[in-house]
Amino acid sequence: MSELTERKVKVYPRFERFWHWTQMALIFVLLFTGLGLNGLHGLVPFGPAVMLHTIAALALIVLWVFAIFWHFTTGTWVHYVPSTNGLWQVAKFYTYGIFKGEHHPYRKAYWRKHNPLQALTYLALKLILFPAIWISGLIYLTYNFWETTPDASFWLQVVANLHILAAYAIAAFVVAHVYLLTVGHSFREHVRPMITGYDTVALTPEEVAYLEADEPARIKP
Amino acid sequence: MRHICSRFVALALTALVAWAGPAAAQEAESAADQSTAGQSTADHSKFEILQKEFTSGPEVTAACLTCHTEASDQMMHSIHWKWEYDNPATGQLLGKKNVINAFCGNVVSNEARCTSCHTGYGWDDMSSPPPADPARVDCLVCHDTSGQYTKLATGAGHPPMEPKGTTITGEPAWAVDLAKSAQSVGLPGRENCGQCHFYGGGGDNVKHGDLSSALYEPDRSVDVHMASDGLNFQCSTCHVSDKHVFAGSRYNVTAHDTEGTGLPGMRRDVATCESCHGNEPHPVNIKGMKLNDHTDKVACQTCHIPEFARGGVATKTKWDWSTAGKLTADGQPMSIEGYTQSDGKELHTYLSIKGDFEWGENVVPYYSWFDGQVEYTTGDQTIDPSQVVEVNKIFGEAGDGVSRIWPFKRMIGRQAYDSELNRLVYSHVWGPTTDTAFWTNFDWAKAIDAGMKAAGAEYSGKFGFVDTHMYWPITHMVAPAEDALECDACHAREGRLANLAGFYMPGRDPMGPGGILGLAILALAIVGVAGHAAIRLFTGRKGGTHE
C-alpha cells in the first residue's frame, strides 16, 4: 500500500450534494406530514398536511427527474452498478467484525465511492422503493381520474397501503443510513464530504497524475 | 299550544308565485332587490277592484283571478295545493296528505288544524280532494307584502277576521285587513314562506332544524345567502318556479346535480347549489382542486353546513309520544319547561298533549350516503317493532356511483303503532269538540281508533309505542366559506364520518395491512440499530476505521 497517497478528492459534485440535501429535506417533510395524515400525530391539521405533502412530493419528483438525467448524462450511474466483489466482506464486517474492532474492509476509490453493500442498498432504493412510493403516490393523488373503474375504492385502499408500506420502508432506510454514519469515522467526518464535496481518498500515482492533468478541479493540491 | 302541521315538503320552502331569480350567484344581489312590490309595473293599490271591504279570503282571490286568470289553475297543479306526491321512482303515493311522520303524525282526522297552512281556504277533510273552486286558493299567504296577513291556527286556512284565537305562528290573532293585503301584493318574501315553513311541526324550527325564524333577518354567519346585510336572498332566489310549481323536493331529492349551471340563462328545474355554483366551485389551486375532487362524493351541504339550528332557534331532536297524557292531580294538562334556548327563552320538554321532548341548537348533522330517494313507512307497511323504525328510509350507498354523503337531521321519535298488525297508526290528536281527540281527552285508545277510522285503515285495536327515526336533509343555513368544515372533521379516526362503511377514506382508516407491516419494518430497523449500537458500546469498539 505504500505507493498509495491520500489526497482530498471531490467525490460529490455540486448537483449531487444539492440533490442529496434537498431530497433529505423533502423526505423529512413527506414522512412528517405522511405520519400525521395517518393519524400518528396531529401536529399539522389534515388539510394543510395534504397540501404540504402534495407540494413536497411533486417537488421531489421533479428533483428525481433531474437527478436521473444527471446520472445518465454524467455517467455517474456506474457507481450504483451492483457488484458481489467484496460484498460478503462488508456484510461480515457490519454483523461481526465491527464488534471485534476490525477495520472496514472497503477502500473508497474516486471512481467507486460506495462500498458494495452501500451500492446495492442505494440501487434497491432507487429501483424499488423510490419508484414504489412515487408511482403509488401519483396513482393515489390522481384517484379522481380512475375512480369510476370497478371497485375503485378497494383499489384505492390497496394503493394507499402500498404507499404507506413503501414510506415506512424508506423511513427504515433513513434510520439505518443515519446510524451507519456513526460507524467508522466520526459522524462529522462522514457527513462532511456531502457538504464540501471532498473526501480523503487513497490514490495510486497514476490516478494522481490523471486527476492533476485532466481533472485538476477535482483534486486538492 | 302552538301546533302547526305544516308539512309542505316536495317544493321546499317558498310560496306560490312564479318569480324569476337569476341563476348566476354573482347576480344574486340584484335578484334580491327585485323581490319588493315596488319594482313592479303594476301598483295594486290603484286597482279599483281591490278598493273595497273584503270579508273573506276567497273574495280577494276572486278579485285576483279577474286579471290573473290562470293563477288558481297553476296553483292547483302544485304540491303546495295537492299535498300529494306520486313518486315515480318508488311508486309510493306521498305528500302531507298521505304520509305519517315523527311529529304530529298525520293530517287525516286533524284537518282544520293542519290545513291552517294549506295554500287554500277550507280544506277540512283529507278523504276529499282540496276544494275545486278557484277562489279557494289563498293568494295572499304568499303574495301579501303588508306584513299583517296571517292564517288562523285552527281555521283550515282562513285568516282571522277578528282578534280571537291564535295564528299559525302561535301569536294571538288579530283582525286581518284584507283590502290592505290585496293592495300590497308582490313577489313572495321570506316572511311569506317562513310563516308556514319555519313553524312546521308545531313551533319555530321544530321540524326541519335548518328552517327557523332566524332566517327572517339572518346575519352572515347564520346564512351566507340570506344575510339581510349581505346577499339578502329570498327563498325563491334558489327555489325557482315555473307556473307556480317550485323546485326543491324532499321526497325526490336532486342529491347529485351533475348538470351544474347548465347553458347560459337559467335553470328553472332545480334548487341545487350546483345550479349556481357549478360542479367545480372551488378555485383552481392545489387545495381547490382537491376540494373539487370531493364534489362527486360529498354534497356541498356536508362541509358548508357544519351545524344546523344556528342563529339562536333550537330544533326538536326527540319526541316521545309514549309519555303523553300525564295530568296534574286535579286532572289538568301540564307543561314542563326544561330547555333554555341560547336567547334565554324556556322551551317545553314535557307536554301532557305531546309527551317528552329534547331540543338542540347548533346540532352536528347525521351523515349518510344518499341517492335522493326516500321510502316512507306509510300506514300500509309492516314494521319490525323490535327495531328502530325508519319513518322515511333514505337510500344510497358508497359504491353505487350516484350517491353522495349528505347531512341530515335525524329526528328520534317514539310513536304509536298497531301492535298486532305491526303498522304505524294514524291518530286523532286535534279536535276540541270531539270526545276522541287525544289533546282534549288524553285517551290513546280512542284517539288511535278515531284516526284509523278517518284514514280508512285496518286496525286491530291493540297499540304500543315504537322507536322511530326520521331523516330531514339539511340544505339551508349555508355558512360562509371560512366556517366550512376543515378536512380533519371527517379525515380523522373518530371524525364525523367514522360510522360510514363501504369505502376507503384517508386519515380515517390508517391501520391497514400496509401501515401495520410498515410500522413493523420501521420498528425492526430501530431495534436492529439500537441493538447494533448497544453491542458496539458493550464491546467497547467504536467500529473499525479505514486504516
TrEMBL record, chain A:
Molecular function terms from GO: electron transfer activity; heme binding
Alphabetic keyword roster: Cell membrane, Membrane, Transmembrane, Transmembrane helix
GO BP field: respiratory electron transport chain
The keyword Cell membrane belongs to this UniProt entry's keyword annotation: yes
GO cellular component: plasma membrane
Record's bilayer topology term: Multi-pass membrane protein
Location in or out of the cell: Cell membrane
Membrane-spanning parts: 21-44, 50-70, 120-143, 163-184
Domain Cytochrome b561 bacterial/Ni-hydrogenase: start-end pairs: 11-197
SUPFAM superfamilies: Transmembrane di-heme cytochromes
This protein's name: Thiosulfate reductase cytochrome b subunit
Species, as recorded: Actibacterium naphthalenivorans
Automatic annotation (TrEMBL), chain B:
GO molecular function: oxidoreductase activity
Segments crossing the lipid bilayer: 516-538
Annotated keywords: Membrane, Signal, Transmembrane, Transmembrane helix
Signal sequence coordinates: 1-20
Superkingdom in the source lineage: Bacteria
Pfam family, one: Cytochrome_cB
Official protein name in the record: Octaheme c-type cytochrome (Tetrathionate reductase family)
Protein's organism: Actibacterium naphthalenivorans
